[in-house]
Amino acid sequence: MFAWMRDLNARERKTMSGCFGGWALDALDMQVYSFVIPTLLTVWGITKGQAGTLGTVTLLMSAVGGWVAGTLSDRYGRVRVLQWTILWFAFFTFLCGFAQDFGQLFLFRALQGVGFGGEWAAGAVLMGEVIRDKYRGRAVGIVQSGYAIGWGAAALLYTILFAVFPETLAWRILFWIGLAPALLVVWLRRHVEEPDIFLAQQAGRKPVGFSQLFVAFQPRYLPTTLKATLMITGAQGGVYCLITWMPTYLKMTKHLSTTSTGGYLLVHIFGAFCGFVAGALLSDGIGRKKTFLVSATGSILMILVYMFAPIDNTTVFLLGFPLGFFALMMFSPMGPFLSELYPTEVRATCQGFCYNAGRAAGAVFPALVGFLSERMALGTAIGLYAFGAYALMMLSLLALPETRGRSLNSIGTTDSAS
Q1: Could you tell me the residue range of the domain that residue 107 belongs to?
Q2: Which of 57, 207, 273, 393 lies deepest, with the highest CB count within 10 Å?
Q3: pTM of the full structure
């Protein structure tokens, strides 16, 4: 199943390793917040609506970060911008641990989001351009599985720190640990190089200017941009309903202890890791679109059972694996799929915009869940919005092409994605 990795050259392996680490540490920093929501609800006395807003603002600002970082990547290089964005989100994650009130945490979370979105924009394009066509889906998908590793690390740290320290201090330590990704930049500077296709394209073009920010809206790219953004909105909206609110749902609705919540989430995260790997292999095996559809269909079925069926906590524990498996599988093909829609000279800008604009629109869903849960059960609110998000994803996907096996060199500026 993984024999193809032996066929990768040294450059491909180093790029995979660097981006895998970036994804894992990105997830660690990003997912810390979901674990501290119950503490902020009790210690600071904020409402669930405010808690949802703190989750949403990071994702909204990630759209800005991804859009700008994509343009900067087209001008200064994928590797250089990847380093900048990692330093950015690590620093502002660290500052979140010093926040004294809702307003300060809102500001730090917003600035953290700029780097979070930018890291994906630079890293996904870097992977898409370095890995050869026949392995692109599998390689980028395996890198995406690093998100589950970082998420799992956040769950373990949450379980340990909240068992050792009072919760008034433990939540701050979780954020302070978020400075760790800055160490990855040292390794990236020494081992990861710019893609050849990018360097060749840069040699014969004028420097990218401010107008590059809006290239995704040019008539030849706009239809693809709109369809891809809607598809990603559904995917992001669905998964963020789950991963933002799952710790709170388990602790406050299912009345689990901190230790039990961490254990339940580790099963869910292990399912997500397996889903990432399965999605990576399927995207090259059956195609990007079919993998998306399998993932979205499975997610809808599992959410209906998990949130609406009268199941006991043992069943909740067991269903955490398939729920995580299907919900995160769809993100493995996402990077290669977007890379295969646009030509090299606009790839990072357009890909960064589509993914992060979709993330920004999807970011509204966790906030809506928070506000709706003040009027109905939290599980019902999660289920309703997640179902709607995945339905939007599936409808949008029907209007997009299959791109498996498409050579990046074959995509010209006048090509359409239809």
Answers
A1: 10-189+223-397
A2: 393
A3: 0.74
